[in-house]
Specification:
By secondary structure, the protein is α+β, with helices and mostly antiparallel strands. Helices cover 51% and strands 20% of the residues. It has helices at 6-76, 81-95, 131-135, 181-186, 223-228, 266-313, 321-327, 333-361, 371-384, 398-405, 407-424, 448-464, 490-506; strands spanning 100-105, 110-114, 139-140, 144-145, 151-160, 166-175, 196-200, 206-209, 234-239, 245-253, 258-265, 388-395, 430-435, 438-444, 466-467, 471-472, 475-482, 512-514. The strands form four sheets. Strands 1, 2, 3, 4, 5 and 6 form a six-stranded antiparallel β-sheet that branches. Strands 8-7-11-10-9 form a five-stranded antiparallel β-sheet. A five-stranded mixed β-sheet has the order 13-14-12-17-18, with helices on both faces. The longest helix has 71 residues, at 6-76. 29% of the residues are buried. Bound molecules: guanosine-5'-triphosphate (GTP). It catalyses: 2 GTP = 3',3'-c-di-GMP + 2 diphosphate.
């Protein structure tokens, strides 16, 4: 089964944490910047709309002042045609406010017009265009269709003669579908960032729009327009008549009751934000990579000793395991503790294994090596061609000891006898308990005669030894010899020692016989 290692886990978690932190910062920055940009765009548009409203207001005021001045001059000699003609021309030429200037008399007849090319002189003012005539006061009209068919709006001023007699009025017209003063005034606005302005009258009709075709269009369902024509100024989000979300600033033009709106598509603002954010991301990438590299190095540094410990824990049975574990650098607390625990565990394990080895290779009663150890050692010696003599030892009439004194005393005899054999063996001789009251002593690189001499010496020592409760006992011994030149197998050699032992028994016991 696939299991993540600590380094990958560490790397995965820290990388995820770093990336999430960065992503969160980007997200928060994006949200804050978005709000800031929206707020600043709304504010910029509000200020701009207010400025344009003020400019338009000033323009209307100036235009009315000019008309008032002309009305004053005309009031002195209204019937003078050449004065009317020169005054309309002067107003048209000097002010450059109007597309045409005309004078209407008290019978609503157009008496004078400039440029003269406009064929309306002598015409009666249409009933639906008589607002300025009837109002008898300075007026800014709503857009209307003139007798010539032009879509226009007019600014007018009444003319009063002696004794406040109403003589008629003078009016300047602005042709909304042609190049006019509004275009000069309002089209200075930069359209690079997708923003634009428009002006609506009290009837929500477009008086000015960058797209001239839309002039005269009535706009419904736009809450910004609804607000501005009732005299409110401010800024807000709005969806325009084409369904495009906009950030709009709007301002009321007091003198005419119109509204000016400056707006920018939200999408353009967001595109600007995307550019800014991409720049932020690109600039933070080096730091992100640096952090991830540090994380990678740190993960290796932190997990390296743990990995080494885990690897050594899998090779505990190797001889150099302990040294390898000691060589692992434990530079932080947990690894140090873990290393200590593993070393302590290894020590306990070694001790247990030694104990286990001892238990499986020795006889629990006497502490001598058992038959299993004997077989292993003889197998080794056979491979190494190690010559040896073997002495088979058997207690004489041991049954009698058991019968007379009990099994426990018999056990004590076996223990004492084993001790005696161990004490008399030099460091090369090895004694085994072969089973029951039979023992074997292996004497490596020992000739038959020397082995026989040793057997005799041992036999005498045993015979002289005073066993607890049982007193003196005797043993019988059989000796044989093996080397690599021998025709016998090791098994036969042991058998021969056995045969010699039985020979000793038959000869009366308490003696040793060398197999011949
Ligand atoms: N107490 C005790 N007795 C044991 C043990 N193993 C074997 N014996 C006894 O050793 C005795 C061996 O008896 P035998 O094989 O008849 O031989 P023996 O009495 O020693 O006589 P010979 O060998 O002919 O001299 C038996 O009575 C076994 O019960 C042991 O571990 N403890």
């Amino acid at each position: 089964m696939f299991r993540l290692d600590l380094q990958r886990l560490f790397l995965l978690l820290t990388t995820a944490a770093v990336l999430l932190t960065f992503a969160n910062s980007y997200y928060v920055t994006y949200q804050v910047q978005k709000q800031l940009l929206i707020d600043s765009t709304l504010e910029a548009n509000r200020v701009y709309a207010a400025k344009l409203a003020e400019t338009t207001n000033n323009f209307l005021q100036n235009a009315q002042k000019q008309l008032a001045y002309s009305a004053k001059i005309l009031s002195t000699d209204f019937d003078n045609e050449s004065l009317r003609e020169s005054e309309t021309e002067r107003l048209y030429q000097q002010s450059s406010f109007f597309n045409s200037v005309s004078i209407i008399n008290s019978k609503a007849i157009i008496t004078t017009v400039f440029p003269k090319t406009i064929p309306i002189k002598g015409l009666l003012l249409p009933e639906n265009n008589r607002n300025p005539f009837n109002a008898r006061k300075p007026l800014v009209s709503n857009p209307m269709v003139a007798p010539t068919g032009s879509y226009l709006m007019s600014i007018s001023h009444p003319i009063f003669g002696m004794n406040e007699k109403y003589l008629g009025f003078i009016t300047g017209s602005i042709y909304l579908h042609q190049n006019n003063v509004f275009f000069k005034l309002l089209s200075q606005h930069s359209y690079i960032d997708g923003s634009y302005i428009y002006v609506v009258d009290q009837n929500k009709e477009l008086i000015y729009h960058i797209n001239k075709k839309r002039i005269g269009e009535q706009i419904e369902g736009n809450h910004v327009i609804d607000s501005v024509i009732i005299g409110t100024s401010g800024s807000d989000k709005v969806v325009n008549s084409l369904g495009i979300p906009m950030l709009a600033g709007f301002a009321y033009i007091k003198r005419s009751g119109w509204g000016v709106v400056a707006q920018r598509p939200l999408e353009n603002v967001m595109a600007e934000l995307d550019v800014q954010l991409t720049e932020v991301v690109l600039k933070s990438l080096p730091l992100l990579f640096l952090i991830l590299t540090i994380v990678l190095i740190a993960s290796r540094y932190i997990t390296k000793p743990l990995k080494a410990l885990a690897s050594q824990a899998n090779h505990m049975y190797q001889n150099d395991a302990e040294q390898n574990i000691l060589n692992i650098k434990s530079w932080y607390f947990e690894v140090h503790e873990l290393k200590r625990a593993i070393l302590s565990g290894l020590g306990t394990l070694k001790h247990k294994i030694n104990q286990l080895n001892k238990d499986t290779n020795t006889d629990p009663l006497t502490g001598l090596y058992n038959r299993r150890s004997l077989d292993q050692l003889l197998e080794q010696w056979r491979e190494l061609k190690q010559s040896f003599a073997v002495i088979a030892v058997d207690i004489d009439h041991f049954k009698v000891v058991n019968d007379l004194y009990g099994h426990d005393v018999g056990d004590e005899v076996l223990k004492h006898l084993s001790l005696l054999m161990k004490e008399n063996c030099n460091e090369n001789y090895i004694a085994f308990r072969n089973g029951g009251e039979e023992f074997l002593i292996l004497l490596p690189s020992t000739k038959q005669a020397d082995a026989h001499f040793f057997a005799e010496k041992l036999r005498v020592k045993i015979a002289q030894y005073n066993m607890p409760i049982a007193g003196n006992i005797t043993v019988s011994l059989g000796i044989s010899y093996w080397d690599s030149n021998s025709n016998d197998t090791i098994k036969i050699t042991l058998k021969k020692a056995d045969i010699a032992l039985y020979q000793a028994k038959r000869q009366g016991r308490n003696c040793s016989i060398l197999h011949s």
